[in-house]
Amino acid sequence: MTASVLSDAFAHHYWATERLFETCAALSPEQLNVSCPGTYGSVIETLRHIVEGDGLYLSVITTGRPSTGIPEGTSLAELRSTMVAHGAAWTELLARELEGDTDVVERDQGWEIHIPMGTRVAQAIHHGTDHRSQICTALTSLGVTPPEIDVWAFAEATGRERAVAPPARDEAMAWPPTGRPRSGAAANTPTSTASTSTTRPMAPGDR
């Protein structure tokens, strides 16, 4: 069966969040509870918000009603375990043939909120991306190097990216090829110009 075009988007969503959990597991309780200006809240509060929102969007799509919130004080390990369970549920949901224009009705406190399936799914992805970036900002403010969690890093880490070097030439070949935008990438030279499949060469600041 062909995978949903959304499969990689959600696989990245959970992979990136898991990498943040791995990094945050090494933080002290004081670091987890430090708030950073311009972000949702402390690191642990923002992680809780990511997991809570993820469950809410999933619940609305599958049951028509929002899930109950996650209590303050929930441990990092419990949040991590809940996020893993969400990932399995989203994977099962995406295995169905979802229609982007399906009207998903959320019923809450007497209100009916009509939003298309495609928009709700897009919000689930956006929400995670937005708040993960805030956690990375908070980690940096604490002097902790955040993990690389963009989609290119995901593709490389999970074997979804394959670079084929150009035929050998006298001149050096730069990466990235003309026409392929990279975020802040500066060109560099592959270590080998042999015509072969290889991991793509990284440029300074490529991520």
What class do helices, strands and sheet pairing give? Answer: mainly alpha
What is the share of helical residues?
Answer: 40-55%
**End-to-end C-alpha gap:** 33 Å
Which percent range describes the beta-strand content? 5-15%
Please, what is the average pLDDT?
A: 86
Count of DSSP strands = 4
Oligomer designation: single chain
Strands of the largest sheet, in order across it? 1-2
Number of helices: 6
For the largest beta-sheet, the strand count, sense and barrel status come to: 2 strands, antiparallel
Architecture overview:
Helices cover 45% and strands 8% of the residues. It has six helices and four strands; from the N terminus they run H-H-H-H-E-E-H-H-E-E. Helix 1 (7-24) packs antiparallel against helix 4, helix 1 runs parallel beside helix 5 (117-141) and helix 3 packs parallel to helix 4 (76-94). The longest helix is centred in the middle third of the chain and has 25 residues, at 117-141. Residues 184-207 have low confidence and may be disordered.
